[in-house]
Write a structure and sequence with these properties.
Elements: E1 7-9, E2 24-27, E3 43-47, E4 52-54, H1 57-63, E5 79-83, E6 89-91, H2 92-96, H3 117-120
Antiparallel strand pairs: 1-2, 3-4, 3-5, 5-6
């Protein structure tokens, strides 16, 4: 789990507290951001357009200069979701089947995120 205070990272820089390339707005050590900062908002999702993890679509929009691309079906078994609680990465398929719980550390994920899966994964409607 990364340490440090809340920080914002804009392209081309990355948040050095994380083992993966991650950017966002007011990101805390567990990947919560200015837009989603509840106790269960502890994931970041990798965008196919730039191969960078963001806590949410708004963070992508505010810290990049390109249109987002959702994670494609053909790559559903590649790492695409980061657990901010333990730093474990999982595939999009594993995340979508995880029942709102990290398969590595059992941290609870926000079930409300399911309402937005179509923003991040091209194979979810």
């Amino acid at each position: 789990m990364p340490s440090g205070a809340i920080q914002t990272t804009h392209a081309p820089a990355f948040d050095a507290r994380f083992a993966v390339p991650l950017r966002g707005v007011a990101v805390d050590p567990e990947a919560r951001c200015a837009h989603y900062d509840g106790p269960r908002d502890v994931i970041a999702i990798r965008f196919a357009c730039c191969e960078v993890y963001y806590p949410c679509a708004q963070c992508h929009a505010e810290t990049t200069d390109h249109v987002p691309a959702r994670w494609p079906y053909a790559r559903r078994h590649e790492p695409a979701v980061l657990c901010g609680a333990c730093g474990g990465a999982m595939s999009a398929a594993a995340y979508l089947q995880a029942d709102h719980t990290c398969p590595h550390c059992e941290a609870a994920f926000n079930p409300g995120c399911a309402d937005h899966h179509d923003r991040y994964f091209a194979f979810v409607e």
